[in-house]
Each structure stands twice: as structure tokens, then as C-alpha cells.
Design goal:
By secondary structure, the chain is an alpha/beta fold. Helix content is 38%, strand content 20%. The strands form 2 sheets. A 6-stranded mixed beta sheet has the order 6-7-8-3-9-10, sandwiched between helices. A 4-stranded antiparallel beta sheet has the order 2-1-4-5, covered by helices on one side.
């Protein structure tokens, strides 16, 4: 069990209501309690308007709770003097990488964050070189970001955040605007960072296959946590998912249809490769 010293972000009875909302309108978030620890990989899912992006913005202190408290490495996000440190710990990756790229070249873009931290030029150069190599961008250092593919742009955006040495990546549907190749490129990069660098990840996504890559899934509905736990528990609960207008993975949905036709599969089957294995095993027995 991890100690409290490994907790990066803690939401304590957090609620949030957008300014100007109608008096009778429900809050965007209500009663959120969640701890994010070092090395966690959490998928945040839910219907549109359930509060996913709002929660990420609270973690990054782009918004402030109207009730409860967000603590990042022992710092309350209400402490305005320490907000730069909070945002350094929790780096935000947005849906459209073009909104996050500011440099005229890839290396300038990666250097932007460290420069804002007023680091020594030698340290900045070292970080840019290290992160570029790690992200497979060294050969693109002098390229203008706007000439890159969607997946490359998103990797540059992630590299810019990594150069600030965050403890957690907050990703708001980072693959939504990418083609399948770009999606795989970004997901593979994030998985490697989580596994090899122990960087925590909170990934907002509408794709159940992406959520299945996480170690924990948190399901939001109407601003509240409707379910949380292992992906094999949350993403195979089709009764709950369908009630909220969501889907399980392709394997979960297909297995459910085949079960209706008399096929039997192990419980909590989640991935396509598992379903293929079970179908092939069943065929061999016939």
C-alpha cells in the first residue's frame, strides 16, 4: 500500500458551480473525493457534461472549487502565490495541440515552459535535448510545429510539459482530433512515460479501448462519481454504461451479444485479444 507521501493530488469533498449558472441548475461537480498517487494511470470517463474536463481544470488550478478543497503535493490550489508550482506539478495536455504550441521550432516550443521557470540556459538546453530524445523528436528539433502531423504535434505538446518535470499529466481527450496512427503514437508515448518514468496520468476519454489501458477507471455522471475501480469491473458493467449512454469496449459489447446466442465467456473479459482467444479455444473444442 502506498503511503500518503506518494499522493500527488487529493480532491476533498469538491464541488463546483460555474458563475452565472441558474439557481436551480445542479452543480457541475458535487462531493468529489479522489486521490491520485505517484504512478497512477486513471481514465476519467462519463457522458458529455458529466464534469470530466471541469475536474481536470480544478486539478490544474485553472478553476477553483466552490466547495471543498484540492490539494497538490500538500499545496492548496486556493494559495494563489503557489499556483505556478501547482501547474508545474500537474501539466495539462489539451484536445487540440495547436492551442498549446507557441514556438517557431520544435525545440523552441519545448523550451518555452522551462524558460518561464527562469531556469539557467544550460539547464534548459539539457532538458530540451533529454525530452526531445525521449519523445523521439530530436530529428525534428528545427522543424516548425505547424508542419508536423497531428500525432507529432501532440508529442511536442507533451514534451513541452515534460520539460517542466511534472508529477502528473492531465490529458483532456488528447487523441480526439487524431487519426488511428496518431492515436496509437500518443497512447504508446503516454504508457511508456507512466511505466518507465512513474509519471501519474489522468486521461479524459470517450474511447472505451483507451480507458481499458488505465489501471483505474473513474466514471462521472451528473458531476458525481458513479463508479470507480479496475477497468475490468467498470468497463464490463454494461447495464450501468448503457444507462448512461456509454459503451463498453468492442470485445465487451460483442461478448455480450454472443452470450445472448448461447456462447459462454469468462467474466470480466475486456480486450479484443482475449475474446479472440476464447472464440478460437471454443472452436477447437467443436
Amino acid at each position: 500500500m502506498q503511503s500518503s507521501g506518494n499522493i500527488i493530488i487529493e480532491a476533498r469533498a469538491v464541488s463546483f458551480t460555474y458563475p452565472g449558472a441558474a439557481v436551480e441548475a445542479p452543480p457541475a461537480l458535487s462531493g468529489i473525493n479522489l486521490a491520485v498517487k505517484k504512478g497512477d494511470y486513471i481514465a476519467l470517463i462519463g457522458p458529455n457534461g458529466s464534469g470530466k474536463t471541469t475536474l481536470l481544470k480544478l486539478f490544474n488550478a485553472l478553476l477553483q472549487p466552490t466547495g471543498g478543497e484540492i490539494i497538490v503535493k500538500g499545496i492548496s490550489t486556493a494559495d494563489e502565490e503557489k499556483l505556478p508550482l501547482v501547474r508545474r506539478y500537474c501539466g495539462m495536455i489539451f484536445q487540440n495541440p495547436d492551442n498549446q504550441l507557441v514556438g517557431t521550432t520544435v525545440e523552441e516550443d519545448i523550451a518555452f515552459g522551462p524558460e518561464n521557470l527562469a531556469l539557467e540556459p544550460s539547464i534548459i538546453r539539457e532538458r530540451v535535448a533529454s525530452v526531445s530524445e525521449k519523445m523521439g523528436l530530436a530529428h525534428l528539433a528545427k522543424h516548425p510545429p505547424h508542419q508536423l502531423s497531428g500525432g507529432e504535434k501532440q508529442r511536442v505538446a507533451i514534451a513541452g510539459v515534460l520539460a517542466m518535470q511534472p508529477l502528473c499529466l492531465l490529458m483532456d481527450e488528447p487523441t480526439a482530433m487524431l487519426d488511428p496512427a496518431g492515436r496509437n503514437e500518443v497512447l504508446s508515448t503516454v504508457e511508456n512515460l507512466n511505466r518507465e518514468e512513474d509519471i501519474a496520468v489522468i486521461h479524459v476519454t470517450h474511447y472505451p479501448e483507451e480507458a481499458a489501458l488505465a489501471r483505474k477507471v473513474v466514471l462521472l455522471d451528473d458531476g458525481c462519481i458513479a463508479a470507480e475501480g479496475d477497468p475490468r469491473d467498470v468497463l464490463t458493467d454494461l447495464k450501468l454504461l448503457h444507462r448512461l449512454g456509454l459503451q463498453g469496449t468492442a470485445a465487451v459489447e460483442l461478448a455480450a451479444m454472443l452470450k445472448n446466442d448461447g456462447f459462454e465467456f469468462p467474466p470480466r473479459l475486456l480486450h479484443s485479444r482475449e475474446l479472440v482467444h476464447e472464440i478460437c479455444s471454443s472452436a477447437q473444442k467443436i
